[in-house]
Amino acid sequence: MAERPEDLNLPNAVITRIIKEALPDGVNVSKEARKAISQAASIFVLYATSCANNFAMKAKRKTLNAGDVMSAMEEMEFERFLQPLRQALEAYKKGQKGKKEASEQKRKEKKNITDENDKSRDEEEDEHMDDEQEGENEGEEEDAWS
Amino acid sequence: MSEKTMEEKVEQATNSKNVSLPMSRVRLIMKSSPDVSCINQDALFLTTKATELFVQHLALSSYKNGSGKETNTLSYSDLANAAEETETFQFLTDILPKKILARDYLKSLEEMKKDDDSL
């Protein structure tokens, strides 16, 4: 799948919102400035990824982890981000844990319902089997007589 | 108009736990980097969040540093100036070049040619 240049850009609406929230109320942003910030953000991702990947490779790991990203921020001299990032990550992990527990709970409940359905079906089958056996016994008795 | 409604405040509170930028798009950009194989979910979240912080930081720094305060507008030149003058933004100088007037550029070309001729 070929990657078109547009796919490596971040959505304009979200970028604009973040810019507006950062600036004092009533400040305008030129279209050119918005576009430039959006491109700068994509470059930032690439730069951060490349930097973080270096840390991972040094540790002989193939998977980029949270620690690598934090080390990259320090390397890039964005120490100001470290504290807010740590807090955000904690909140994120808590949220993920909550979601996971909620979906596991749902899965358990679903399993219980399905188990109950199977159980009642088995009981009905047992009843039928008993009737058949009684029929067979009667047949044998008759043969014995003749 | 700048006052937030109750709904927006609630949305912002829940958003502060998550990110506004789409993590799927950020992952796409990360994967386009050579030698990157796997990305842990926490790493993806951090990169996305860091990018948001970066956008805020770039916008605000450029505005404070630039001449936009008089015009109440953040312009491209504010960003280009920030890229050149601020150390942490120097990796952006290639994509945020300063603009010069065409006539100034042509003038400097002529001067360079004159220097070459006199050699």
UniProtKB/TrEMBL annotation, chain A:
GO BP field: DNA damage response; heterochromatin formation; leading strand elongation
Alphabetized InterPro entries for the sequence: CBFA_NFYB_domain, DNA_Pol-Epsilon_Subunit, Histone-fold
Primary location group: nucleus
Keyword Magnesium: no
Compositionally biased tracts (Basic and acidic residues): 98-122
Transcription factor CBF/NF-Y/archaeal histone domain boundaries: 9-73
Top-level taxon of origin: Eukaryota
Localization per record: Nucleus
GO molecular function terms listed in the Swiss-Prot or TrEMBL record: chromatin DNA binding; protein heterodimerization activity
SUPFAM superfamilies: Histone-fold
A GO cellular-component term linked to this record: CHRAC
Sorted UniProt keywords: Acetylation, Coiled coil, DNA-binding, Nucleus, Phosphoprotein
Composition bias type Acidic residues, residue spans: 123-146
Renumbered residue ranges of the record's region Disordered: 92-146
Subunit note: Component of the DNA polymerase epsilon complex consisting of four subunits: the catalytic subunit POLE and the accessory subunits POLE2, POLE3 and POLE4. Interaction with POLE4 is a prerequisite for further binding with POLE and POLE2. Heterodimer with CHRAC1; binds to DNA. Component of the CHRAC ISWI chromatin remodeling complex at least composed of SMARCA5/SNF2H, BAZ1A/ACF1, CHRAC1 and POLE3; the complex preferentially binds DNA through the CHRAC1-POLE3 heterodimer and possesses ATP-dependent nucleosome-remodeling activity.
Stored PANTHER family: DNA POLYMERASE EPSILON SUBUNIT 3 (PTHR46172)
Function noted in UniProt: Accessory component of the DNA polymerase epsilon complex. Participates in DNA repair and in chromosomal DNA replication. Forms a complex with CHRAC1 and binds naked DNA, which is then incorporated into chromatin, aided by the nucleosome-remodeling activity of ISWI/SNF2H and ACF1. Does not enhance nucleosome sliding activity of the ACF-5 ISWI chromatin remodeling complex.
Protein name: DNA polymerase epsilon subunit 3
Organism: Cyprinus carpio carpio
Lineage: Eukaryota, Metazoa, Chordata, Craniata, Vertebrata
TrEMBL record, chain B:
The Transcription factor CBF/NF-Y/archaeal histone domain, residue ranges: 20-82
Keyword match tRNA processing: no
One Gene Ontology MF term: protein heterodimerization activity
Pfam families: CBFD_NFYB_HMF
Domain of life where this protein originates: Eukaryota
Matching InterPro entries: CBFA_NFYB_domain, Histone-fold, Transcr_DNA_Rep_Reg
Chief location of this protein within or outside the cell: nucleus
Annotated Gene Ontology cellular component terms: CHRAC
Gene3D superfamilies cross-referenced by the UniProt entry: Histone, subunit A
Location(s) in or outside the cell: Nucleus
Keywords: Acetylation, Coiled coil, DNA-binding, Nucleotidyltransferase, Nucleus, Phosphoprotein, Transferase
SUPFAM superfamilies: Histone-fold
Biological processes annotated in GO: chromatin remodeling; DNA-templated DNA replication
Protein function: Forms a complex with DNA polymerase epsilon subunit POLE3 and binds naked DNA, which is then incorporated into chromatin, aided by the nucleosome remodeling activity of ISWI/SNF2H and ACF1. Does not enhance nucleosome sliding activity of the ACF-5 ISWI chromatin remodeling complex.
Record's subunit section: Heterodimer with POLE3; binds to DNA. Component of the CHRAC ISWI chromatin remodeling complex at least composed of SMARCA5/SNF2H, BAZ1A/ACF1, CHRAC1 and POLE3; the complex preferentially binds DNA through the CHRAC1-POLE3 heterodimer and possesses ATP-dependent nucleosome-remodeling activity. Within the complex, the heterodimer with POLE3 interacts with SMARCA5/SNF2H; the interaction is direct and enhances nucleosome sliding activity by the SMARCA5/SNF2H and BAZ1A/ACF1 interaction. Within the complex, the heterodimer with POLE3 interacts with BAZ1A/ACF1; the interactions are direct.
PANTHER family in alphabetical order: CHROMATIN ACCESSIBILITY COMPLEX PROTEIN 1, HISTONE-LIKE TRANSCRIPTION FACTOR CCAAT-RELATED
Protein name (database record): Chromatin accessibility complex protein 1
Organism the protein comes from: Cyprinus carpio carpio
Lineage per the UniProt record: Eukaryota, Metazoa, Chordata, Craniata, Vertebrata
